[in-house]
Design a protein that fits this description.
With about 150 residues, the protein is an alpha+beta fold. It has one domain: Immunoglobulin-like (Sandwich). Strands 1, 3, 5, 6, 8 and 9 form a six-stranded mixed sheet that branches. The protein has a three-stranded antiparallel sheet with strand order 2-4-7, with no helix packed on it.
């Protein structure tokens, strides 16, 4: 039989557990650099050729629309092999990686992503010649995803 005393003790224990829980995991500059290096295999990344379409002010980080396009003719000899999106303050910095081929037609991808906080988004494109190109976008997120509100 559940009594009022048991309910109060259980609720108090739950509240203490929530207050003492460990801090949420976030990517560090080291994990971000490691994720980028894993994608680029340590090769130089040049700025340019990549365009990011994302709102600069995001009300809710749970579902943020993102479109990335890369300047490429998408032919057999000159095309985009992959597009990777990195978020510096998400628990895992590598948000998504898209694989493309010349048959993709256009070097354009669209999706919705989760953002853990206001941060800089980094997008890197790998071209068929082995080069890497990038673009950054700074975002302000008013209600972050990847966190719980007490």
């Amino acid at each position: 039989m559940t009594t009022r005393r048991h309910t109060l003790i259980g609720g108090g224990a739950l509240a203490v557990g929530l207050l003492l829980r460990p801090a949420l995991a976030r990517a560090t500059p080291e994990t971000m650099a490691a994720a980028v290096a894993a994608f680029t295999k340590g090769l130089q990344v040049k700025p340019g050729k990549v365009a990011i379409d994302i709102p600069p002010l995001v009300e809710n980080g749970n579902s943020v629309p993102l479109t990335v396009s890369v300047d490429s003719p998408m032919t057999e000899l000159d095309h985009v092999n992959a597009i990777a999106v990195f978020a510096e303050k998400n628990p895992l910095p590598n948000v998504v990686t898209f694989a493309l081929t010349p048959r993709s037609g256009k070097a354009v991808v669209s999706t919705r992503i989760r953002l853990g906080d206001s941060q800089i988004l980094l997008v890197i494109a790998q071209l068929s010649d082995g080069s890497f190109w990038s673009q950054k976008a700074e975002l302000i997120v008013t209600l972050p995803a990847c966190v719980e509100v007490l």
